[in-house]
UniProtKB/TrEMBL annotation:
Domain ORC1/DEAH AAA+ ATPase: start-end pairs: 27-198
Region (Disordered): 333-352
Superkingdom of origin organism: Bacteria
Protein name as it appears in the record: ATP-binding protein
UniProt-recorded Gene Ontology molecular function terms: ATP binding; ATP hydrolysis activity
Stretches that traverse the bilayer: none
SUPFAM superfamilies, A to Z: P-loop containing nucleoside triphosphate hydrolases
Keywords, alphabetical: ATP-binding, Nucleotide-binding
Length: 352
């Protein structure tokens, strides 16, 4: 099983998501937004495994959580009919990959549940899954999800819903999901990069029913991120042998620049550096192995651009200008604070 490294920028979002999922209120959107590589999928799945408990206790034919990755099957555009069909299929033949980590293929719980799902499907003797128009498929989903005791539908790569033909507004998709929340006892958990914010932008009815959990990368511009990032570098380095003591820690500024502060990118750099050392027949990783594992200039620029877009989306709006207008209209403008007397000797005092 993959070892989850509880670094600083993973621990706090984990607490927030766990709290949001533990909230018994239904009819809500829960968003997990962060650049690719910060650990959104790992975070979600680890919590769901903990919350859903032993599958043997779910009850026959019940599945508490279904998970689907949003794709672009229609000539690189999102297709809402495909999503409806996929979610209905999950109610009959669910993919329970969330019960294991990606490198834990022999997980006994996952294998047992998968085997039972396949057995149940075979017992239907190949019965066809529901088919029909998009409205009909969403109607099937609304009716069948409560029967299966689904309380959470997770849609990963949710930003794909924003890739549409010119005559399709991304808000149409999220408003459709909102209408489903109105008639089912469940929540939607949507994960994605910063572009997913377009799904709630200018839609206050969606934003009001949303809990947004941000998973930021480490930033050299946030002073509080320096020590956690250095700790992360030191911790990751313990799993490798380097040509010089302190080599990796001494490269921390370079590693921040090369990874944009993203955990997954930093981890991949070290994995690739180890492969380079192994290929060269060396046990120890050199500085050259590490620098040769950095992204190319074009990829690195895109990485930093994405982080910049994410930071802009995450940032709260500045309300000071409007607040001044409100204070003026209400007649509650703050009086400027009186200056405290000082013992400074100004020009006038010197002249006296």
């Amino acid at each position: 099983m993959a070892r989850v490294l509880p670094h600083a920028n993973y621990v706090e979002p984990r607490k927030q998501l766990q709290r949001a999922l533990a909230n018994p209120a239904r009819g809500r959107f829960i968003w997990v937004i962060g650049p690719s590589g910060v650990g959104k999928t790992t975070l979600r799945r680890s919590i769901l495994r903990s919350m859903c408990g032993d599958p043997a206790l779910w009850g026959a034919g019940n599945i508490p959580v279904i998970e689907k990755f949003a794709l672009l099957p229609n000539k690189a555009y999102f297709n809402s009919l495909w999503l409806a069909q996929s979610l209905v299929r999950e109610l009959f033949v669910p993919n329970v990959n969330w019960l294991r980590d990606d490198d834990d293929l022999e997980n006994p719980t996952f294998l047992a549940v998968t085997s039972e799902i396949q057995r149940a499907h075979r017992s239907l003797h190949g019965a066809l899954l529901p088919k029909g128009s998009e409205p009909a498929m969403w109607e099937h989903f609304q009716r069948l999800a409560p029967q299966r005791k689904v309380w959470l539908t997770a849609i990963d790569q949710a930003h794909a819903l924003c890739t549409n033909h010119r005559n399709k507004d991304p808000a149409d998709h999220i408003l459709n999901l909102l209408s489903i929340l109105d008639v089912t006892d469940m929540n939607f958990l949507l994960s994605g990069v910063h572009g997913a914010a377009d799904l709630w932008a200018a839609r206050p009815e969606v934003r009001r029913r949303s809990t947004v959990i941000w998973m930021p990368p480490y930033s050299y511009e946030r002073r509080g991120d320096r020590d956690p990032f250095l700790t992360l570098v030191r911790t990751l380095g313990k799993g490798y042998t380097f040509s010089k003591p302190g080599l990796l820690f001494g490269m921390a500024p370079e590693l921040m620049a090369a990874s944009a502060g993203i955990f997954g990118v930093l981890k991949k750099i070290l994995v690739d550096a180890k492969e380079r050392a192994d290929f060269a027949g060396r046990r120890a990783i050199t500085k050259g192995d590490i620098t040769a594992s950095y992204y190319g200039s074009r990829d690195l620029k895109k990485l930093w651009d994405d982080v910049g877009f994410f930071e802009d989306v995450m940032k709260s709006a500045d309300t000071s200008s409007i607040a001044k207008n409100v204070a003026s209209a209400w007649g509650i403008e703050r009086k400027p604070k009186a200056k405290k007397p000082t013992n400074d000797v100004g020009p006038d005092k010197e002249a006296a």
